[in-house]
Fold this protein.
Amino acid sequence: MPEKNRFSKLLEYLMSVTELKNATLAQELQYDVSYISKWMSGRMLPAEKTEKKVLEGISKCIVEAADEEACTSLLSDYQVDDCEELKMAIFDNLEAECSYVRDLQKNTGLDVAPKTFYYPELTLSQYVSKMRHPVLRRVQSLDIMAAIDLMAMRHEYQLQITQVENVHVPKMRGYPDVRYSMLIHVQPEKWDFIYDTIFLIHLLTCNTYINFNLYGDEQAAGRVIFTVKDDYAISGMLVGTDRCMAVNVSEEYENCRPLYRNIQALCNKERLLFKKTTIKEMIEKHNYIHSLLSLNQRGLLGHMTEHFLSDELFEEILEQLSESGKLMAEPEALRSIQRLSRNIMQESHIKILIYKTAFYNLVVNNELDFYNHKVRLTVEQRSRYLEHILSLYKERENLEIRLINGRFVADFEYSDSQCVFLSDTISYLRLEGEVNNILLINRSDMRKIFEESFEAFWNYDEEVVERDRTIVEAYMQHVIRGIHLVE
């Protein structure tokens, strides 16, 4: 018996889990039952012009036919919380598999892909399209290893490579069972300290919702290898900035497993560029305090943080979080940090770059990042917070603040919401998101890159970075006056 195609295998699995009968599905779709049988056997795909309607109908029937046990199993498979999300996830999965088989038929005349296929040469766009295999729709126990010379590619291909993701996965939650390790070649001497650094922050931010780790080693130079454990692999050699040669694509276990293991062996602690942590862990291990006590403190702020709190407002927020049970550390430990922060602001030389949008978002969204926990402030509290920053800035010559008027790089529309804290000993990133968003810079070469990048940002064109103290003060006063206008 010929092997079934991927779409028919998935449809058969979903119908077997829910015990949905061919006749029931045919009746709901208003199709002859023979069509269902042909889809199940792999002899036919849903017609292209009615594909979306048919797949939506199948997804709806699957969910409605599921009893409690089957529903629990499918919710776990697709890592979603309710039936509406499950319908969307199943539809996305069916659509991906149907499109995969249809493209295969058009390009090769086959319903089932050869276990291994060789291409002498592909453009990077063609390579990326083959990376987007339907197996990536899986969000439970998905394990990926990649060795990609990402920084040697043209910018548009960097973005295409890093947009390979599960399209139905909501990013507001974490998916620890989706593991993705990427090895890249880091060359500080060739680094674009504006574009490449912002791209790197974008890459890390886009992957906070999964278990993502980034490694650096020259072994990734000239390579474009992407493998899903035991399921799928594509590998090639990078030629220039936009092409690959000697590309192998395989769904064979015997080919996927060695590639996976070889890259896995390279992804060790010494090559790890960023180490995941939490604010709680940083406080308990005294890393947070060490970062405050270090010399050459610099900050790039995409949102407003706890660093500029007056003692009075700090105590109000502390009491609020204590009552709600959301406090992330012992109150006395936080009070010690607050006292230290106040003294640092008074005595140390600090450089701070703040996006204007950080002020705007505080005014409109009412949210302050208090040790990586979002706290809503009243109008009066927001005014006091900003007035305290303004008073510090007026009184302390050692506190330098420059305002970022816009984006450094047009490619990244939402790149202005992240925070980077740098010092001579401990440097870390605080990204958007609720999980995996605190990253310690783990290697000296990467710390050097971020230090050089900060100086490039700091001294950027005056049309983007405002450095005149009078204008900076005037802007803060304008924001304070505007707080009451948005209520």
